[in-house]
Design a protein that fits this description.
This protein has 317 residues and is an alpha+beta fold. It has 8 helices and 17 strands. The chain is globular and about 50 Å long.
Length: 317
């Protein structure tokens, strides 16, 4: 987290921590006491939920509608079948990726987002028996948006919040913009290959197939599931970074781009969403106004699929 006035850092940080804790209690698939787990275990019964979980589920269903089901919250059972049945830190420790193995894994069908029934007036959610919701594609990004808004409201300052590679900006614009390092792994330091950009408003999200990997069967898998197959999405892009008017929309687009593979570039360009896509071989593609140049990700070959490019490192707001 960054704040335009360092004197307000503690106050802003407290606001961010409060929002993150609320989202964890509502939306985590890995907490036995979370609201989401209660809904998933309700065996088809309608469950009254908090406004926060209701908003989070509706955000996930909106993502599915906007992407024709390519980002679908009912992939939960598919993820569990692939082995993603615990917090990723514990999963990674228990199932370190194996580099030289053929892939043989079990898969589960994805029921589809239309099977989930939300009644906003009654504030209830009904998930069919046997269906497991996973809100990973949207809840963290929504938390970043809400946390940035809350921290800015509490302090009156410009705020940048980053949660696991999802960035949200709120409050007064900080000239010349927030300087953000875009890399394959948000945990990497500034020496990791990537690109520096300036972002004044909205949100930035990066989705990828290289970081969240684990052993499954005789090979390795990643966490972005293609709902049409129940399997990990084909690895065309190792990372996709997108900017949008808010972090949740950026995350919807970046996740869908991983699933869509070769179709992603044309789709992102049609939506005029500034994007940076990195192929498995390191080739970098800039779209829809994402700044060309400044990439230092060997053996990256930067190219543009859109002639409407900026000449600085500033991403259009």
């Amino acid at each position: 987290m960054c704040v335009s006035d360092a004197a307000l850092l503690d106050e802003a940080g407290a606001a961010v921590e409060r929002i993150v804790d609320q989202f964890d209690r509502a939306c985590s698939r890995f907490r036995a006491d979370s609201e989401l787990v209660a809904c998933n275990e309700a065996a088809g019964r309608a469950v009254r939920v908090s406004p926060l979980l209701l908003d989070s589920i509706e955000a996930a269903l909106r993502a599915a509608a906007l992407t024709d089901g390519d980002v679908d919250p009912t992939v939960g059972q598919a993820l569990i079948t692939l082995g993603y049945d615990q917090d990723f830190a514990a999963l990674a420790a228990a199932h370190a990726p194996s580099e030289n193995a053929s892939l043989r894994v079990s898969v589960a069908a994805v029921p589809g987002w239309r099977t989930v029934d939300v009644d906003r007036s009654a504030r209830t959610v009904r998930i069919p028996r046997g269906v497991t919701l996973d809100l990973g594609a949207t809840a963290k990004a929504l938390a970043a948006d809400r946390a940035a808004e809350e921290a800015s409201a509490a302090t009156g300052a410009g705020v940048l919040v980053g949660l696991g590679g999802d960035f949200a900006i709120a409050g007064p614009v900080v000239p010349p913009g927030w300087r953000i390092r875009v890399t394959d792994d948000h945990r990497a330091d500034v020496r990791a290959g990537g690109q520096w950009i300036l972002l004044k408003s909205g949100g930035l999200a990066t989705s990828g197939t290289t970081v969240r990997r684990w052993s499954a069967g005789d090979g390795t898998v990643h966490h972005v599931v293609d709902p049409s197959s129940g399997r990990p999405a084909a690895e065309v892009w190792r990372t996709v970074s997108v900017t949008a008017s808010c972090c949740v929309d950026a995350n919807i687009a970046s996740t869908a781009a991983i699933v869509r593979g070769e179709r992603a570039a044309e789709w992102l360009t049609s939506l005029a969403l500034p994007s940076r896509l990195v192929r498995v071989d390191g080739t970098v593609v800039h779209l829809a106004g994402w700044p060309v140049g400044g990439d230092d990700l060997p053996p990256a070959i930067a190219r543009s699929a859109d002639t409407r490019q900026t000449t600085t490192s500033e991403v259009p707001a």
